Amino acid sequence: MAGELATSRRKVERSTFELERKHVEVESRRRYIETILERITTGVVSVDGGGTITTINSAAARLLSLDRGIVGQPATRGVRAAGSAAARSAARRRGTRSRPNRPRRRSRFRTRARNFTSPW
Question: What's the predicted TM-score (pTM) here?
Answer without folding.
Answer: 0.50
